[in-house]
Amino acid sequence: QLFFSYFKDLVGQEVTVELKNDLAIRGTLHSVDQYLNIKLENTRVVDQDKYPHMLSVRNCFIRGSVVRYVQLPPDGVDVDLLHDAARREARGG
Amino acid sequence: MPTKCSMKLLLNYLCNLFRSFNCSMATTTGLESLVDQIISVITNDGRNIVGVLKGFDQATNIILDESHERVFSTKEGVQQHVLGLYIIRGDNIGVIGELDEELDASLDFSKLRAHPLKPVVH
């Protein structure tokens, strides 16, 4: 639930989602859900020549289970706040 | 051998079923906005399947109509295998993209060369 809330706050930011099949998609975070499925708008694949498969896709839904990393803008993160929240979650859970 | 009529019935029944299940959470990304649109699905085994989204559920199982698979290779242009009406299990789905038909029409598939997508490794 912590990361769900965290991602909800990040809606509107530009992120790059790296998938477990090595595909990397850049786009604006449109929405997220309880499974951490991600909807991105204005998408473009990072290495378009290598992966032309999504050339005509501008908005996409990414299933949470295939995400390896979500790369965030460095100033989009309050690391200390996140750190504290995670510590509290770990203690309480 | 299922008749065309019974396939239509199945399609309707499943669409209604899926819609009635998808009404819980306040924040659902939901594929509702993509229903009846042409979408491009990337499956966990690295396949790219294009079709019209007819229904879905919370597990991301989807019903795809008029579907065809796009096979990319490094040697020849993209091949398209026509599939028809498909149910794809959510477990096997990676990405669902909204296909922009104009952009898609402007692509010359016979010239496109690419390595096939890698399968998803957990």
UniProtKB/TrEMBL annotation, chain A:
<dbReference type="InterPro" id="IPR047575">
    <property type="entry name" value="Sm"/>
</dbReference>
<feature type="domain" description="Sm">
    <location>
        <begin position="2"/>
        <end position="76"/>
    </location>
</feature>
<keyword id="KW-0687">Ribonucleoprotein</keyword>
<keyword id="KW-0539">Nucleus</keyword>
<dbReference type="GO" id="GO:0003723">
    <property type="term" value="F:RNA binding"/>
</dbReference>
<dbReference type="InterPro" id="IPR016654">
    <property type="entry name" value="U6_snRNA_Lsm2"/>
</dbReference>
<keyword id="KW-0694">RNA-binding</keyword>
<keyword id="KW-0747">Spliceosome</keyword>
<protein>
    <recommendedName>
        <fullName>Sm domain-containing protein</fullName>
    </recommendedName>
</protein>
<comment type="similarity">
    <text>Belongs to the snRNP Sm proteins family.</text>
</comment>
<keyword id="KW-0507">mRNA processing</keyword>
<dbReference type="Pfam" id="PF01423">
    <property type="entry name" value="LSM"/>
</dbReference>
<dbReference type="GO" id="GO:0008380">
    <property type="term" value="P:RNA splicing"/>
</dbReference>
<dbReference type="GO" id="GO:0005681">
    <property type="term" value="C:spliceosomal complex"/>
</dbReference>
<keyword id="KW-0508">mRNA splicing</keyword>
<dbReference type="InterPro" id="IPR010920">
    <property type="entry name" value="LSM_dom_sf"/>
</dbReference>
<dbReference type="GO" id="GO:0006397">
    <property type="term" value="P:mRNA processing"/>
</dbReference>
<dbReference type="InterPro" id="IPR001163">
    <property type="entry name" value="Sm_dom_euk/arc"/>
</dbReference>
TrEMBL record, chain B:
<dbReference type="InterPro" id="IPR044642">
    <property type="entry name" value="PTHR15588"/>
</dbReference>
<dbReference type="InterPro" id="IPR034103">
    <property type="entry name" value="Lsm8"/>
</dbReference>
<comment type="subunit">
    <text>LSm subunits form a heteromer with a doughnut shape.</text>
</comment>
<dbReference type="GO" id="GO:0000398">
    <property type="term" value="P:mRNA splicing, via spliceosome"/>
</dbReference>
<dbReference type="Pfam" id="PF01423">
    <property type="entry name" value="LSM"/>
</dbReference>
<keyword id="KW-0539">Nucleus</keyword>
<keyword id="KW-0508">mRNA splicing</keyword>
<keyword id="KW-0687">Ribonucleoprotein</keyword>
<keyword id="KW-0747">Spliceosome</keyword>
<comment type="function">
    <text>Plays role in pre-mRNA splicing as component of the U4/U6-U5 tri-snRNP complex that is involved in spliceosome assembly, and as component of the precatalytic spliceosome (spliceosome B complex). The heptameric LSM2-8 complex binds specifically to the 3'-terminal U-tract of U6 snRNA.</text>
</comment>
<comment type="similarity">
    <text>Belongs to the snRNP Sm proteins family.</text>
</comment>
<dbReference type="GO" id="GO:0005688">
    <property type="term" value="C:U6 snRNP"/>
</dbReference>
<protein>
    <recommendedName>
        <fullName>U6 snRNA-associated Sm-like protein LSm8</fullName>
    </recommendedName>
</protein>
<dbReference type="GO" id="GO:0046540">
    <property type="term" value="C:U4/U6 x U5 tri-snRNP complex"/>
</dbReference>
<dbReference type="InterPro" id="IPR047575">
    <property type="entry name" value="Sm"/>
</dbReference>
<dbReference type="GO" id="GO:0005681">
    <property type="term" value="C:spliceosomal complex"/>
</dbReference>
<keyword id="KW-0694">RNA-binding</keyword>
<dbReference type="InterPro" id="IPR001163">
    <property type="entry name" value="Sm_dom_euk/arc"/>
</dbReference>
<keyword id="KW-0507">mRNA processing</keyword>
<dbReference type="InterPro" id="IPR010920">
    <property type="entry name" value="LSM_dom_sf"/>
</dbReference>
<dbReference type="GO" id="GO:0003723">
    <property type="term" value="F:RNA binding"/>
</dbReference>
<feature type="domain" description="Sm">
    <location>
        <begin position="26"/>
        <end position="102"/>
    </location>
</feature>
